[in-house]
Sequence to fold (86 residues):
Amino acid sequence: MTMFSLLDEARITQTWRDLRSKARSLETLKVTTGEHHAIIDAIEAGNSEGAAAAMRQHLTTLMGNLSKAVTKARRAARAPAEPVEA
Fold:
């Protein structure tokens, strides 16, 4: 299996979609859009080192965003339920 096929397999799961939606915000979308443009620009310029560096930065950002979402979800799962008013 290639890395792309592994990613595609992960991306079709409901767990991935739920986690990804929790990690997204207007700010993260702005950042990742800029990162995507940097990757494309470097590829179009024939700058393989720049493209690799831009991709590493993008993956680092993604990992940070997902890590924050997982931490937040774990904390919410451990938090006591709020009482329901009658």
Remarks:
- The helical segments are 3-11, 14-23, 26-44, 48-78.
- The two ends are 55 Å apart (CA to CA).
